[in-house]
């Protein structure tokens, strides 16, 4: 059982990580770094889930984390493949240069 | 005792043995529709590995048909919807119907994709594209029928990850690559928000099961972690509104729809939206039995903004795929207005989605039939096309009139039900503005037809291929016929939906 005051500490860390990831996605220009920031957001959520899992003494939250990790791994595979396919055609992964379509 | 791992304690409490004993053949029977889709996806992959691409399209159609047939018994004899597989997903009744509707978008797009790949000499991609379509359909099924938020997330990701790859399936085409990258980065970003929202719900309630969350006293939830309540709902809404391409989260839609291979867009635009709308309405309704009023007003406003934005921006587009992408934002608005209108509107939204599936798949298939180079997609170059190619002109007219919502086509019936339920739900102003925006919609849909029929043909810029290839002409004609038939006699389908809906206890009590 987690004491309430510790709980808020963990939650604050996880929200902070999430926000850092979010800022990274919004400001960075390199596609791979943007992608890494998305992964950071997913892992911040993992911390959130584990904290509450411990707080409620309930294994469901910890199980959820495993599934999130699996999904993140699958996303990593697909995402890197997409970035590599793009790099082969364009020799560039700066997201500002992907402007074939007007936004 | 204090330092002992809580997970170990809880696992022993759960009595793993008992869980294993509980697993019975009924679970397999209940999940058979989804499992068979998965199985056929694997078979198609294997066929591809052994260089049998030619038959993959037939196997895919067969697989989807079998999966739909497996769901039929629970639908034909209207039965109660019930939980299965450790209370993870719903099955039978309405859930079966949802499965059939979701499979429909995959089934209908297969012939057009086959033809498009042949035309572009990309037949070697058949195996992977079809297996991804099957996997994506599995994801849609899990997403739409999930009872556990964990299942919702997994279903959403299975669906989306497959769609990211499908958007970029023409590896050598820079436009396809770019569409795929944008879809992927923004999609992953949005699903992180959804996930945070789900984890906040877990934090407030201590469970991820929606049926259990509904029964918890709402005031109890609010007392425990009052800070988390509205952020949780907002974050979940962001995740779903992104998938639905509703107004403030629509940025990816035009680019992805323009860049991705044309008939695949038809699939991406319909199935994933239908699944997301169903799941979104269900989750919102079960999370918020008490503050439903406030929330449905927010959703209604977002729906309104989507309609206005989508229709006005679509009117300025030259590229037909971009035009349809913006118009799909406005169609999302109509659906969301349905979701906001309560249980009655939720039903209207599902009905609208069904009609939208037919119209959109047919429209993108028709566009792909004359597409050879990028300029062919600019509808200003289509002057006189309708007279030169009667079949193309006629079917395009049916689709455009239907999308614009003219009677007696299906699009009108769909809009009618949505606006009716909105008025009944108290959103009179929203409904009036919605109808006005659909007049703007009529302007740009009809502009395409005016260009095709009443302008003098300019030979030098016209699309080269004017004949619709035989293998896709019949499927498109069937779709057009369905649109006309639903438009004239909608009663059987909508009353049937009523029966199933009455049996769906979990929705009726919302």
How do the strands and helices of this protein lay out in sequence?
The complex is a heterodimer of chains A (103) and B (510).
Chain A: H1 4-27, H2 31-56, H3 59-90
Helix pairs in contact in A: 1-2, 2-3
Chain B: H1 6-14, H2 16-22, H3 25-30, H4 32-49, H5 56-76, E1 82-84, E2 89-91, H6 94-119, H7 126-145, H8 149-167, H9 174-205, H10 210-215, H11 218-224, H12 226-244, H13 252-259, H14 262-287, H15 292-314, H16 320-340, H17 342-370, H18 385-388, H19 390-404, H20 410-424, H21 428-454, H22 470-488, H23 491-503, H24 505-508
Antiparallel strand pairs in B: 1-2
Helix pairs in contact in B: 4-5, 4-7, 5-6, 5-7, 6-7, 6-14, 6-17, 7-8, 7-14, 8-9, 8-14, 9-12, 9-13, 11-12, 12-14, 13-16, 14-16, 14-17, 15-16, 15-21, 16-17, 16-20, 16-21, 17-19, 17-20, 17-22, 19-21, 19-22, 20-21, 20-22
How does this structure look, described?
The complex is a heterodimer of chains A (103) and B (510). With 103 residues, chain A is mainly alpha-helical. Chain A has one domain (4-93): Helix Hairpins, CATH 1.10.287.3510. Helix content of chain A is 80%, strand content 0%. Chain A contains three helices and no strands. The longest helix of chain A has 32 residues, at 59-90. Chain A is elongated. The termini of chain A are far apart. Chain B is mostly helical and 510 residues long. Chain B has a domain at 291-510. In chain B, 77% of the residues lie in helices and 1% in strands. Chain B has helices at 6-14, 16-22, 25-30, 32-49, 56-76, 94-119, 126-145, 149-167, 174-205, 210-215, 218-224, 226-244, 252-259, 262-287, 292-314, 320-340, 342-370, 385-388, 390-404, 410-424, 428-454, 470-488, 491-503, 505-508, and strands at 82-84, 89-91. In chain B, strands 1-2 form a two-stranded antiparallel sheet. In chain B, a hairpin with a 4-residue loop joins β1 (82-84) and β2. The longest helix of chain B has 32 residues, at 174-205. Chains A and B meet through α1, α2 and α3 of A and α1, α8, α9 and α13 of B.
